[in-house]
Amino acid sequence: MEKRGIKSYVIRQGRMSQAQQQAYREQKEKWSLPYEEKALDFTETFPGLDQVVLEIGFGMGDATHQIAFENRDKGYIGVEVHKPGVGKLLDQITKRELTNIRIIEHDACEVVDRMISPASLAGVHIFFPDPWPKKKHHKRRLIQEPFVTELAKRLKPGGYFYAATDWDDYADQMLEVLSANSLLENGFSGFADHQSWRPLTNFEQKGLKKSHEIHEVFFVKK
Q1: Catalytic option among 91, 130, 172, 193
Q2: Overall CATH class of domain 31-221
Q3: How far apart, in whole angstroms, are the C-alpha atoms of residue 222 and residue 220?
């Protein structure tokens, strides 16, 4: 996959709490992986764990640490460029004594392209990516070709792609792009049922209070 010129995100600095700053300062080196132009060896990253899930854009990490806590037999790699979110997740990793999460602070497209080997992932999570609502910005949306194909190539046979959004036309785009991909098949007829193991995030709860409809897609690698 060629290096993309158009970014699917903007770096919003935001304010970090003292706890987030401390965790970022003291725990980043321990639980983060540097961006490198070589594939990760998951047996070294997560010794003893044979299933690794990639989460792109974990935000404040609310769902990330909860899922990892409930599935300690799996490794989770979270990719995020929002420093307060990274700091908060590092704080939760420490508080919950989690050893099965690693963080990469870098462009997700380059991470997938350079650091994730083909047929190596058990799953991919993309929860509430930036919808880029203006039509002229739709080209910045993350879930579109060819990125979906690159992700699909990195799934093991039987691995899954799970995404959620509260933006209607983005949901339609997700379903269309994923349905057209020859490497994936829909686990449902249309949009997916909510997966009970995915906790609701604070962002999602705020959307529900505003009567936003949540759409989920769940596809499996053929």
Answers
A1: 130
A2: alpha beta
A3: 6
